[in-house]
Structure prediction request, 33 residues.
Amino acid sequence: METNLIILMAFALIVLAMIVRLWVLDMSHNGKL
Prediction:
């Protein structure tokens, strides 16, 4: 059970990092930073 929780947390962190990276790239592309 703990291993599944760790895997889910790692997957969530990867997805969150991808979303943040795409958002930052979009913001910098639009020149809002």
Q: What stands out?
A: The chain is about 90% helix and 0% strand.
